[in-house]
Amino acid sequence: MIRAVLWDVDGTLLDFQAAERAAVRTGFSRRGLGTCTDEMLRVYSRINLKYWEALERGEMTKPEILVNRFREFFALYGIDPDVAPAFNEDYQLDLGDTVVFRPGALETVTALQGRVLQCAVTNGTKIAQRRKLARSGLDALLDAVFISEDLGAEKPHPAFFDRVFAVLGDVPREETLIVGDSLTSDIRGGVNAGIRTAWYNPERKPLPKELRVDHDLRSLEEVPALL
Questions:
Q1: Where does the chain hold its CATH 1.10.150 domain(s)?
Q2: What is the Cα–Cα distance from 169 to 158, expressed in whole angstroms?
Q3: Distance (Å, rounded) from C-alpha 198 to C-alpha 173?
Q4: Of residues 8, 15, 94, 181, which has the active-site annotation?
Q5: Which of 10, 121, 127, 166 is the most buried (most CB within 10 A)?
């Protein structure tokens, strides 16, 4: 039996790439940096992912990755890298302005209200996450929100989940399910924490050989049947 569902936010409940594209383009327009093309956005997305994975491995701090990803991106296109700190500050706010639900996300969270404890677990910045959760209405639907900046640890580290369970109290780990799109953050984090894992994998990527995945989901609407 599952008593608690830990939902990842970006890429799972919400379409992070849609928000990312809109926020970067808004920043370019605001600062007169020219046109940000689709190809430039694809390059930025790859750079961004690389930095967040470095954060998950403990190789960089969050302030370092937030600014350095833009420094690297801007340097590739002849934009002054010193713009990066201010650009990132605006980007955090802009990121919360575009809310696009992943298919079935709102319906599933709504359907599970009152059946299980539902919590957001996210490594995103507090500024961006609070803004997007409020604008999406998820903050009113979920029972709790756990942001790594507040907890002082990032997924997939066990300390993140230890602090989540310290708040949840008597919820057993074996009766907790994490649902997320990231193998390195959500699924590895769930394994590290000793909880059940559900990989949101609509693109049907192959299952990893080195990592336990309890449930391989094509749709978020499969989640209620797991309870």
A1: 16-95
A2: 16
A3: 14
A4: 8
A5: 121
Taking the model in full, what pTM does it have? Answer: 0.93
pLDDT in tens, 17-51: 999 999 999 999 999 999 999 999 999 999 999 99
> Residue 109 in contact with residue 138, Cβ under 8 Å?
yes
Which residues make Cβ contacts (< 8 Å) with residue 33, sequence separation at least 6? Answer: 27, 79, 83
Is 186 one of the catalytic residues?
Answer: no
CA distance 82 to 80: 5
201, 216 contact by CB (below 8 A): yes
Q: What residues contact residue 40 under an 8 Å CB cut-off, 6+ apart?
A: 77
Task: Summarize the chain as % helix, strand, coil (round to 5).
Answer: 55, 15, 30
- What is the number of residues in the chain? 227
Q: Is 130 exposed, middle or buried (0-12, 13-18, 19+ CB in 10 A)?
A: middle
**Where does CATH 3.40.50.1000 sit in the chain?**
4-15+100-226
pLDDT of residue 9: 98
C-alpha span between 149 and 143 (Å, rounded): 19
pLDDT confidence of residue 199:
98
Q: Which CATH architecture has domain 16-95?
A: Orthogonal Bundle (1.10)
Distance CA 211, CA 204 (A): 16
Domain 4-15+100-226 annotated CATH 3.40.50.1000: yes
